[in-house]
């Protein structure tokens, strides 16, 4: 299984003890622990740094904040904390990752970063419905982020698809901006936490369409409605909406390491122990390796563990030298 990086012509090459890829709660917490553990640490943060919390509104379940804190503000503080401790942060995407030879190599455009240990913390991205009409209207009425795009649909009717925390949280958020929100879910029970469900059920301009799947998003140049199929009666109905928010979960961002590090059936990083991977010296933390909990606080916790594991690994290789 060979994996060679393309050449680094024209760029610089730097060597660091720990390179962390990703800058959500997992990556930044790992950075804080790694640098405090004495390791020369760098974070490849990506062009849109901060991870999924950058797309969230209020966070009220991150301990230490008695009042809700905005997701982007929480990430700004984590980043400031890491930077104050001496972590270097590169606001560009990793374009290639080579884990088959040591030192590990991460290519960032024309530059290369070599690492004794790598922490993979690239998180997960929104899952798509997979409809051709969804592709057609992406950015023209179909959105994956209510906080980013909600205002475009001020006083209009919109639909939210999904039944998890994200869907319900977005429905509540949009209900304050839009005329009405129709939440379309494929079952007759929401997956979201009870407290969120209770809030949503109490909001008069949130309607629920149960046991239904979206079969087509219709419109000419802009979205005019969604066609939904009732899974019990097979009846197809057209719901007129101007915006469609797709909130049906996430897929892990493992594309750059597929074929190198072992993945699970669902393409998450397969863990050995708490944060170890199939390659010694490569660790993983946060949503890229966690299909179950996927919380900011659990990602941060995993980030801390990954850094401590990486520090122990560095110590072991130093002792062997
Ligand atoms: P999720 O919990 O995986 O829920 C995805 C929802 O989409 C489910 O209701 C699922 O239906 C539905 N779904 C999946 N694939 C679908 C498809 N192809 N077509 C139609 N519907 C589909 O994802 P999430 O809501 O994004 O939440 C992710 C994680 O973040 C969770 O752990 C959640 O607790 C957390 N989160 C927490 C907060 C908070 O605490 N404030 C806020 C947001 C997210 P089924 O129910 O039938 O499977």
Shape: elongated
User: What structural class should be given to the helix and strand makeup?
Assistant: alpha/beta
At CATH level 2, the architecture of the largest domain is: 3-Layer(bba) Sandwich
CATH homologous group name of the largest domain = FAD/NAD(P)-binding domain
Structural domains: how many: 2
**Distinct small molecules:** NADP nicotinamide-adenine-dinucleotide phosphate
Number of helices: 7
Structure commentary:
The chain has 321 residues and is α/β, with parallel strands linked by helices. It has 2 domains: 3-125 and 250-320, 3-Layer(bba) Sandwich (FAD/NAD(P)-binding domain); 128-246, FAD/NAD(P)-binding domain (3-Layer(bba) Sandwich). The chain contains 7 helices and 19 strands. Strands 1, 2, 5, 6, 7, 8 and 19 form a 7-stranded mixed sheet that branches. Strands 10-17-11-12-13 form a 5-stranded parallel sheet, covered by helices on one side. Strands 14-15-16 form a 3-stranded antiparallel sheet. The protein is elongated and about 70 Å long. The mean pLDDT is 94. It binds NADP nicotinamide-adenine-dinucleotide phosphate (NAP). The site of NADP nicotinamide-adenine-dinucleotide phosphate has 20 residues, from helix 5.
């Amino acid at each position: 299984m060979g994996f060679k990086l393309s050449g680094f012509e024209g760029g610089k090459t730097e060597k660091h003890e720990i390179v962390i890829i990703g800058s959500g709660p997992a990556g930044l917490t790992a950075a804080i622990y790694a640098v405090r553990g004495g390791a020369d640490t760098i974070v490849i943060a990506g062009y849109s740094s901060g991870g999924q919390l950058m797309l969230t509104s209020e966070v009220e379940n991150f301990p230490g904040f008695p009042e809700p804190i905005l997701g982007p503000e929480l990430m700004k503080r984590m980043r400031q904390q890491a930077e104050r401790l001496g972590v270097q942060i590169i606001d560009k995407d990793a374009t290639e990752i080579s884990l088959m030879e040591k030192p590990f190599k991460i290519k960032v455009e024309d530059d290369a970063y070599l690492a004794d240990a790598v922490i993979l913390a690239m998180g997960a991205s929104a899952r798509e419905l997979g409809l051709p009409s969804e592709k057609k209207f992406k950015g023209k009425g179909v959105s994956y982020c209510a906080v980013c795009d909600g205002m475009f649909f001020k006083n209009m009717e919109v639909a939210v698809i999904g039944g998890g925390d994200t869907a319900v949280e977005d429905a509540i958020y949009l209900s304050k901006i839009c005329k009405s929100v129709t939440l379309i879910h494929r079952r007759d029970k929401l997956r979201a936490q009870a407290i969120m469900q209770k809030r949503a059920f109490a909001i008069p301009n949130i309607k629920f369409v149960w046991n239904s799947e979206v079969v087509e998003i219709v419109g000419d140049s802009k979205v005019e409605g969604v066609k939904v199929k009732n899974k019990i009666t097979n009846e197809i109905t057209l719901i007129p909406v101007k915006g469609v928010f797709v909130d049906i979960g996430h897929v892990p961002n493992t594309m750059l390491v597929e074929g190198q590090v072992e993945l699970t059936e669902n393409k998450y990083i397969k863990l050995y122990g708490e944060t170890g991977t199939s390659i010694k010296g490569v660790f993983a933390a946060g949503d890229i390796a966690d299909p179950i909990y996927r919380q900011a606080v659990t990602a941060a916790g995993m980030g801390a563990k990954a850094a401590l594991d990486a520090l122990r690994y560095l110590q072991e290789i130093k002792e062997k030298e």
